[in-house]
Specification:
- With 342 residues, the chain is of the alpha/beta class.
- The protein contains 12 helices and 15 strands.
- It has helices at residues 4-14, 18-21, 51-60, 91-98, 117-124, 135-141, 143-151, 181-193, 201-207, 256-263, 277-286, 314-317, and strands at residues 28-33, 36-42, 74-79, 102-107, 128-131, 155-162, 167-169, 196-200, 223-227, 248-251, 270-273, 291-296, 306-307, 320-328, 331-338.
- It is elongated and about 75 Å long.
């Protein structure tokens, strides 16, 4: 039996849940018999049933209609079934309990809690296992999840909005909207893709941002992280919208490496940094930034405005190479990757 088409379907359909499954990976599972799909299951929402559990549940409704025993079925799943008990039970154990005798896996899970252990459970219970069909597609689909577990750090994207003359804001700290509405809409999608948004004290006080993903589809709102040693909420007389609507973490130091270690204590796989020039450059100098997204307006702010960078060709000097460039409204969106990584 050729399982590639079934795997492609599972990968494609799993992708529909990218905004609601995060920070978990998106996963698809299909149960088949004689090249016929019996049931499908997907990890639809963080904290809820995994794909394999949903596929088994749907198939149970068809016992004695389309099949008589789960031993007749083959399970195709995009990612290795989990072995540990977290917010849900062990998928590998559920597969064993169901009576399934053959499992086709797209990719091994990079998470050390799981990696190889789910497969071990299956094999120890005499389940035939095949691994590696379209594993590159599975890894690309779950780029942030794979990156975190392979590199022991979240994937970090820095977003900046720049005037044509490379400026961030006026010296007066007056809030200025640099980019067009289309770019602002695109930023909302960028926020929706990430597990967390990080900013600093100056942006919090000067812009009073909400920093949520204002999109027209369902999304797990990104966690919001304030990195500031000096900010004291007890001395702040305003009710900041930043602290409303989703989980907020205040990391009370300015050391970036320590902040990353603290963030690694939870499930966050990706961070979008939206901050002013001082914190943005600090992150770039730290070497932790993986991707830089620059929205450039055709308008200038003038010589007295504050520059994003202190030197020419700063982006290239930080080790970034241009990956793509496109026009959004009247603006230009450039995406740079560290050392040209993809």
């Amino acid at each position: 039996m050729n399982y590639e088409d079934f795997m492609l379907r599972a990968i494609t359909e799993a992708g529909r849940n990218k905004y609601t499954a995060k920070p978990n990976p998106v996963v698809g599972a299909i149960l088949v018999k004689n090249n016929e799909i019996i049931s499908e299951g997907y990890h639809e929402k963080f904290g809820e049933n995994h794909a394999e559990i949903n596929a088994i549940f749907q198939a149970k409704k068809l016992i004695n209609k389309k099949f008589t025993s789960f031993s007749e079925l083959t399970l195709i799943c995009t990612l290795e079934p989990c072995s540990h008990i977290g917010k849900t039970g062990s998928c590998a154990e559920a597969i064993v309990d169901s009576g399934i005798k053959k499992v086709i896996i797209g990719s091994i899970d990079p998470n050390p809690k799981v990696s190889g252990k789910g497969v071990d459970i299956l094999k120890k219970n005499n389940i035939e296992v095949e691994i590696g069909i379209h594993q590159d597609l599975v890894a690309e689909q779950n780029k942030f999840f794979f990156y975190r577990h392979k590199n022991n750090k979240p994937y970090i994207t820095l977003k900046i909005a720049s005037s044509l003359d490379g400026k961030s804001h006026f010296n007066s700290q007056e809030r200025v909207y640099i980019t067009c509405e289309e770019s602002n809409d695109d930023v909302q999608k960028l926020r929706a893709e990430n597990d967390a948004i990080l900013t600093g004290k100056n942006t919090l006080l000067n812009d009073n941002p909400r920093m949520n993903a204002r999109v027209n589809f369902h999304v797990n709102q990104p966690e919001k992280i304030l990195l500031s040693k000096s900010y004291n909420p007890n001395l702040d007389k305003l009710e900041r919208p930043f602290f409303k609507g989703s989980k907020t973490t205040h990391i009370k130091n300015n050391d970036i490496e320590s902040a990353i270690l603290k963030i690694l204590q939870n499930d966050i796989c990706s961070i979008l940094i939206e901050a002013g020039p001082k914190l943005a450059n600090a992150f770039l100098e730290s070497g932790f930034v993986d991707e830089l997204v620059v929205y450039t307006s055709p308008n200038k702010l003038g010589e007295t405005a504050v520059s994003w960078f202190r030197q020419n060709n700063a982006i290239e000097k930080y080790g970034f190479k241009l990956e793509s460039s496109c026009k959004i409204g009247c603006d230009i969106k450039d995406i740079y990757l560290k050392n040209g990584k993809k």
